[in-house]
Amino acid sequence: MQDQALYIAETIKKFRKSRGLSLDAMAALSDVSRSMIYQIENGATSPTIAVLSKLAKGMGMGVGELVEPSSKPSLYRLSNIESARTTVSGDKSFVCRLLSEGSPNRHLEIFAFHFVKKGKHTSKGHGGSAVEYLYVTSGKLSVEVGDEVFEVQSGEMLEFRADKQHTYRCENPGARGLCAVYFPV
Q: What's the first-to-final CA gap in the chain, in angstroms?
């Protein structure tokens, strides 16, 4: 396998494994088939530019980062919250915007969230030994992590292992905050 193809394969696999993503989950994230990702990771094929573009977008990085090792990560990235990837819960109570996606050089994802009405948001966990930092900027949340329940109020931060299911509950609309998920190397 060529050096560049090996770098691409390792970068994709490292990204996927560090987040506890299956091949199917990576396929859904990037809109590239499971079998294509498997072949790339195992050096059986070299991806086209179109496939590289989809993978890079799904991984939250530029194609350049995916195909060529960088001696240092970019020091500047300006993001607009209005163009951030947005998730809304099924009951439409919880809105979450991904402000900064992780990548092989960035092991941190940052989210801004708010509850527009009473409700809850459950995460199945982030895999690996991920750590979550939840900072409430207004309102109050109950956070369930395993069998533990924590009350987090405006101005408080909760740090917890995020490798298992956890739930944010909001009894009064308007709770807002920031969340960072760190994926140790």
A: 25
- Structure-token match 């405006």, residue found: 154
Sheet with 94-100, side-by-side order of all strands: 85-88, 94-100, 108-115, 176-182, 131-138, 157-161
The token duo for 65 is: 């980062």
Estimate the crossing angle of helix 3-18 against helix 49-59, to 10 degrees: 30
The model's pTM is: 0.61
Helix runs in the chain, H state only: 3-18, 23-30, 34-41, 49-59, 63-67
In the chain, the percentage of residues whose pLDDT exceeds 90 is 39
Q: pLDDT digits over 125-149, tens only?
A: 887 788 999 999 999 999 999 899 9
